[in-house]
Amino acid sequence: MANLKDIRNRMKSVKNTQQVTKAMKMVAAAKLRRAQDRMLQLRPYASKLREIIGNVISVVDAEDIPSRLVEQREVVDNILVVHVTSNRGLAGAFNTNINKATLAYLQETHADKIEQGKVQFVCMGRKGFEFFRKRGFNVNGKNFDVFQDLSFDTVNEVIDMIFEKFLSGEVDKVYLAFNEFKNVMSQIRRVEPLLPLSVDSLEVVEKTTESTLQSDYLYEPDQAQILSELIPKALRIQIFRAVLESNAAEQGARMVAMDKATENAEDLLKSLRISYNKARQASITNEILEIVAGANALESK
Q1: Which secondary-structure segment (H or E) carries 123?
Q2: Torsion from C-alpha of 178, 155, 36, 82, nearest 10 degrees
Q3: pLDDT, tens digit, 9 for 90 and up, residues 11-44
Q4: Residue 116 burial by Cβ neighbours in a 10 Å radius (0-12, 13-18, 19+)
């Protein structure tokens, strides 16, 4: 059995750790509130824009769409994955789950491209960057740390690079992988096609009626100008929304993880107190026995 000093030191260490986890939980809760507000403000706009662009391109012939972002390549040779994780750990399985989900999806759908080394990554978040780099994937340059200054302009710099890779023909298909915020306790792992833009990738909502999809649209000033501006904007909003969703999901996961860690620390403290009391009782008993033995020895003389 450990001596009293060792148990006291361990109890002190656990209490210090518990204070840290409590503080981290409070910080994560505050960040979650702000992140959730930003995410919820963008969701209706992003969803409606996604619906509109899906309806429009579904009734327009592909050759009439002026944007090359809808260009379907005859041969899909190179794959790009835009992967969103976090820069920090201590968030439970938040990063591990999306990393494994992305890897499993690629192994299922593009195993041949992985073997040929034709899958590359653009990572927003250090955890995803390190995960895929260690496994020998072609990870573009660096971790694009958009979370230090999370704004549309910051994310837009990464989006410009993604568009350039697709338009130049360096990649033929682009996927977006991220954690979608469901609630504080759980996230939905998403790996969905991003480029080329298509009705299937947009997943036009079921409430859209067939008559709506078949109706004619009036364009002002003209169809070409509207589509050339609307399509890139819809894609930029889609990527920015994914980053905001991931940021909110990260804070929720970290808050839950730190709350659980605080509870575990309390359980460990209870166990250590019991061990301490047992050790203290044993120590007192030994001292009493030594005193009694000493007294008996004196009396026998």
Answers
A1: strand 119-124
A2: 0
A3: 999 999 999 999 999 999 999 999 999 999 999 9
A4: exposed
Domain assignment of residue 99, yes or no? yes
Full domain range(s) for residue 228? 22-258
Nearest to 238 by CA among 20, 42, 7: 42
Q: 88-137: per-residue pLDDT in tens?
A: 888 889 999 999 999 999 999 999 999 998 999 999 999 999 999 999 89
Domain count, the chain: 1
Residues 85 and 53: their CA atoms lie apart, in Å, by: 27
Distance CA 128, CA 106 (A): 15
The structure tokens listed for 50 are 């996604």
- Is the residue at 263 inside a domain? no
Contacts (Cβ under 8 Å, ≥6 apart) of 146: 124, 154, 155, 158, 243
**Close Cβ partners of 36 (under 8 Å, ≥ 6 residues apart):** 181, 248
Residue 169 lies in a domain: yes
Enumerate residues 6+ apart whose C-beta is below 8 A from 263: none
Sheet strands side by side (includes 186-195): 138-139, 119-124, 79-84, 173-183, 186-195
Tokens of 14: 């656990």
Three-class SS state of 122 = strand
User: Where does residue 289 rank: exposed (0-12), middle (13-18), buried (19+ CB within 10 A)?
Assistant: exposed
278 belongs to a structural domain = no
Give the CATH number for residue 119. 3.40.1380.10
